[in-house]
Design brief:
The protein is of the alpha/beta class and 381 residues long. It contains ten helices and 18 strands. The structure holds S-adenosyl-L-homocysteine.
Length: 381
């Protein structure tokens, strides 16, 4: 805590004076009684206090919230000035010194998630600060993330300000038009954390037969098609997501031969192997395989399985763009898993680029847990 890590665990608390309610501001003191930090109480969570300040003269109030939101917005000035990009994360929770608050911008609309009691009880102040700072057309709350249950909070969603169209809205990503369902899409609508990686991977796709696994709405597909891919096959378990892949290619006038397979990537890659299919570029962007420490080993087996299959399906010199968004599987461990897959595949595999989450998901040095997405672009011989 002295190093400004923003989580105080229940097991580290010797004594509680008074009876704080969820979301209340509390002072954290050392055993000698000296003031250490200020935070908000989460009575049901193992992370019992979220720390907001290490300055005794800084009250946790509406002014602090506004200040921090202003700073987060200022930290995205380059993105705001980029006319080809209208969707990005504006507030990334602890990484922007706003524990439990996620705010994503989608064109004129904001989607927010309140994931801790400290954020949830301040919903009105947060909405007021966002309106003041950004004048959005709507603020929609999608606090439907599983982590809320650890805080003893129910899932909740709904319009908190303004008007939001019933249908999908359009955003720009790297100059491409993409439709996004803010009410029903995955996460807050789409995977903003992969924005820059869509561009990085597309550079390898000119003239290539591309296989995009776990495609969702087609961020990699649209960029690959724009870069001149020869053919693109997408696999996702969600038929609705694959419909969006088609819609997004069409929306940008990209007429590349494209096929969509509704299915399980693990099974479909095995089928392709049996059919001796080959590709020039394979993208693996699976969902989070490890939600807690107990799942890490199984997650690694899953990563190894799909990466081994992908290596076997690549032509010599082909490109594997492989990702893990499991925060608990660190970059070193992920690289070891890919190493294991290369041994079993009996292929020489070179890392040519290391990728991370996009710049609107910054990593605060005092909160390394904020770094969760890692990717490797590999050449497979
Ligand atoms: N590549 C996307 C994000 C992918 S998110 C982008 O850049 O925007 C992960 C996707 O995997 C989701 O769309 C989910 O529907 C899909 N999915 C999850 N498990 C799957 C499985 N076993 N087989 C196929 N798709 C799966």
């Amino acid at each position: 805590m002295r190093n400004r890590h923003p989580w105080l665990f229940a097991s580290a608390i010797a004594r509680v004076d008074g009876t704080p309610r969820d979301g209340d501001v509390v002072d954290v003191c050392a055993s000698d009684g000296s003031w250490m930090a200020g935070g908000t109480w989460s009575g049901a969570s193992q992370i019992r206090v979220r720390l907001w300040t290490w300055d005794p003269d800084e009250p946790i109030d509406a002014a602090l919230l506004s200040d921090r939101i202003r700073r987060a917005v200022a930290g995205r000035a380059e993105l705001a000035a980029d006319s080809g990009t209208t969707a990005y994360r504006l507030v990334f929770s602890e990484s922007d010194s706003l524990p439990g608050l996620i705010v994503d911008r989608y064109a004129d609309y904001l989607v927010m998630q309140l994931l801790t009691t400290g954020a949830a009880v301040r919903v009105d102040e947060i909405v007021a600060a966002l309106r003041e700072e950004l004048s959005p057309a709507a603020i929609y709350e999608r606090s439907d993330a599983e982590v809320r249950t650890k805080e003893g909070l129910d899932r909740t969603e709904g319009l908190r300000w303004g008007d939001l169209p019933e249908d999908a809205i359009e955003i720009l990503e790297g100059g491409y038009r993409m439709e996004v369902e803010l009410r029903n899409g995955q996460k807050t609508g789409t995977y903003l954390d992969q924005r820059q990686n869509h561009v990085r991977v597309a550079r390898y796709c000119a003239g290539a037969e591309v296989l995009s696994c776990f495609s969702y709405a087609g961020g990699f597909e649209v960029h690959a098609a724009g870069a001149g891919a020869r053919q693109i096959i997408s696999i996702d378990s969600s038929a609705a997501a694959l419909e969006q892949v088609v819609a997004n290619l069409r929306r940008n006038g990209l007429s590349v031969p494209a096929e969509q397979i509704t299915g399980n990537v693990f099974g479909e890659l095995r089928r392709f192997r049996a059919e001796e299919r080959r590709f020039d570029v394979i993208i693996l962007d699976p969902p989070k395989f490890a939600a807690n420490a107990a799942q890490v080993e199984k997650a690694c087996r899953g990563y190894k399985d799909i990466n081994l299959l992908a290596m076997q399906l690549l032509r010599p010199g082909g490109i594997l763009a492989t990702f893990s968004c499991s925060g608990l599987v660190g970059a070193d461990l992920f690289q070891k898993v890919i190493f294991g897959a290369s041994l079993d595949a009996r292929r020489d595999v070179q890392i040519v680029e290391r990728l991370s989450q996009s710049s609107d998901h910054p990593v605060l040095l005092t909160f390394p847990e904020g770094e969760y997405l890692k990717g490797l672009i590999c050449r497979v011989w």
